[in-house]
Structures are given as C-alpha cells and as structure tokens.
Specification:
The complex is a heterodimer of chains A (224) and B (146). Chain A is mainly α and 224 residues long. Chain A has 7 helices and no strands. Chain A is elongated. The radius of gyration of chain B is 25 Å and the shape is flat. In chain B, strands 1-2 form a two-stranded antiparallel ribbon. In chain B, helix 1 packs antiparallel against helix 2.
C-alpha cells in the first residue's frame, strides 16, 4: 500500500505531491517504465528475428539438464526451479516492505536477508545454466542446437538467449547489491531514525520488476 | 483509506495498512499455480510433437495470456500499484500501451521479411532442407580463451 510521504520533506519544491506519493518513489516507477521499454525492445527484436526465421530450436530440447542429474532428460525442470526461487524472493521482499509499513525493524531485516539469499540462489542457478550451455558449445556466435525440424540453425538463438538472460541477470545482480545496502541501513537503524521505511519500498519496486521481467524471459525463451 | 488531517498540508489521504499478510500469500499461491499450468502447457508441446498447428498456436496463446495475468498480479499486488491514485497509475500504464503497436508491427515485419526472403533468396528458400548432422560428444567447444 502506498506509504504516505513524511512531514519534513519539501514537496517537489512546488508545495504539493500531486499523486500523494514521495518524489523518489514516483521516479523509481518512471525508471522502471523506461527499463520495461529496454527489455521490451530486446524481447521484441528477438520476436522479430524468430518470426523471420523458417525454424527455431526447441527449448524443451535445449534446456533439459539439471545439476547432479547428468544425462537425464528433464526438460524445463531447472528453469522452473529458477522461476520458483525468483517468485519466492519476490514474496519475501513484499513481506519486508510490509514489515516496513509496520515500522518493525527486526521483520524488515529478516525478510530482506531471505530476499538476498533468494537473489544469490537465482544467480547461482543462472551461472550453472550458462556454464552448462557453454560446455555444450553454446555461446555468443555459436549455436550447437539444431532447429526443431532437424535443419541447421543460425546463431540467433544463442545470441539472443545470452544477451537477454545476461541483461536480466545483471539486473538481478544489481538488485542483490541494492538489497544488501538496504539490509545494512535497516540493521543500523537508519530508517527508524528517518521515521519511515520508504527506501525499502523503492528497493522492493526494483526487485519486483526483476521478477516481472523474468515472467516474460521465461515465456519467450523457455515456454513458447 | 482514512482521512488524516495533521501529518502535512500536502497530504490529504494516508493509506491504511492491513497488518495481515493474507493477501500476499494468496497472491504467491496464485502465481505458483499459474506457473505450474504454464509449465504443463509448455511441456505438452514437447510430449505431443505432432500437435495440430492451430492447437499449437492456441496453447502458446493461452501461455501468453497466463503470463500477462502473472504480470498483472505482480504489479498490482506486490508492487502495490493497484493501491495508488488512479491518475498516477495512468501515467505508468498509458505509455506502456505503445507495446501493443511495437509487438504487432515488429512481428508483422519479421514475418514479412521471412516471406520475402523465401520468395526471392534461393539460399533461404532451401534452408529447411539442410539437415543438421547428428550430435556427437566432442561437439565444437566455443571461444578462444587462450
């Protein structure tokens, strides 16, 4: 829920907050909107190239490995785990924001810590997946996977996969860094002194956005 | 929402915070449930490779709609956009409407490019007939990392 702006702020220097919202939080929303266009541009260019190709590799064939299950075909299992981890860390983040509303420092610290654990777990999974694909000969400019109909594929598949999941992974990484900074500040009682936990809300918006983008990366690369 | 008179002259309305986390967990289970359905549909295309074309497109269409539903729940509940003032929501949502045109126009263009090349580029036309060699273990390793 929208947390009201604290008393002592200068209201955008214009005397009023038109949306009953803190300036920084509104700007975070606009930043995320612009970031949505960046990711959108990446995914739409991927879609354009895919629509211009006669055939495309089958994600169920490409993504079927799972750590410690060498040689076992488990299509989409690992990416499902990654999706679950990210949804779960989104929940712990929203719980941290919730505790922030209630001015409960202990709760904020606890749930933020879990969110960071989830973020690091996701990054670890992605590192494993990239390494696995690399060892199977996939990288920027190299695509060992044939098309779904068995014909020779282009390198478009790998190029888009590594660029877009890499860009998303970079967002996860920066989200983890932001959350660690928030954890230290909350731990130090900075937000208690300020009298509000608005910074946690803003970090939370960024973190949920990362989860939101993953919904579409998961959709475009793994499901369809 | 309750009226609050003494916080600041700028703020006329303060949000009332629900101390329960029921709504958050409900959303979590919903997201998980939708993801499992998506996964099942995605795998169904693998289990039944000889699915009719119209069914294939229908399954993909359902997965896309389910993903949009997930996006709606994340933005509206987890990011609390649904609790903001309506005009603020509109400043976010209205610009994103451009995506409707972006997606339509670019995918249309990609498709048209494929058709044109298949018609006029003999190399592209015979592309589906060039079969990949069977996979073997010592596949080409990428990179020159020396």
């Amino acid at each position: 829920m929208a947390q009201t702006v604290p008393v002592e702020r200068k209201w955008w220097s214009g005397g009023k907050s038109p949306f009953n919202l803190e300036y920084g939080k509104l700007m975070m929303w606009y930043f995320l909107m612009s970031d949505a266009f960046t990711f959108g541009a990446f995914l739409i260019s991927y879609g354009t190239i895919r629509f211009s190709s006669n055939n495309w590799p089958n994600p169920n064939e490409v993504f079927q490995a799972f750590p410690f299950f060498e040689g076992v075909s488990l299509p989409l299992a690992f990416v499902s785990l990654m999706t679950f981890i990210l949804i779960m860390s989104s929940v712990t983040m929203v719980l941290a924001v919730h505790e922030g509303h209630l001015m409960n420092k202990r709760g904020v610290v606890k749930w933020l810590a879990w969110t960071i654990v989830g973020g690091i777990a996701f990054l670890g999974c992605q590192a494993w997946e990239w390494t696995h694909l690399y060892h199977h000969g996939a990288w920027w400019g190299l695509n060992p996977f044939p098309n779904a109909d068995g014909s020779v594929s282009t390198t478009n598949f790998s190029n888009f996969f590594f660029t877009i999941t890499g860009f998303h992974g970079f967002h996860v990484f920066s989200g983890v860094i932001i959350n660690i900074i928030m954890l230290i500040m909350a731990w130090n009682g900075d937000f208690d002194r300020r009298g509000h936990y608005l910074m946690i809300e803003k970090a939370g918006l960024y973190w949920h956005f990362v989860d939101l983008v993953w919904v579409f990366v998961f959709l475009c690369f793994y499901l369809i | 929402m309750e009226q609050h008179h003494h916080i600041s002259p700028e703020i006329s309305v303060t949000a009332h915070h629900d101390p329960s986390t029921k709504r958050i967990w409900k959303t979590f289970w919903l997201l998980l449930f939708i993801t499992l359905i998506e996964l099942f549909l995605g795998l169904s295309m693998y289990w039944f490779p000889h699915m009719a074309d119209w069914l294939h497109i229908a399954v993909k269409g359902i997965i896309i709609i389910l993903s949009l539903a997930k996006a709606f729940y994340i933005v509206s509940i987890f990011m609390h956009l649904g609790d903001e003032i309506r005009n603020m929501i509109m400043t976010i949502v209205v610009p994103l409407m451009l995506f409707v045109w972006f997606i339509g126009a670019f995918l249309w263009d990609g498709h048209s490019w494929k058709e044109l090349r298949n018609d006029y580029d003999p190399y592209k036309k015979e592309e589906p007939t060039r079969k990949a060699e069977p996979k073997h273990e010592d596949a080409q390793k990428p990179g020159h990392l020396k």
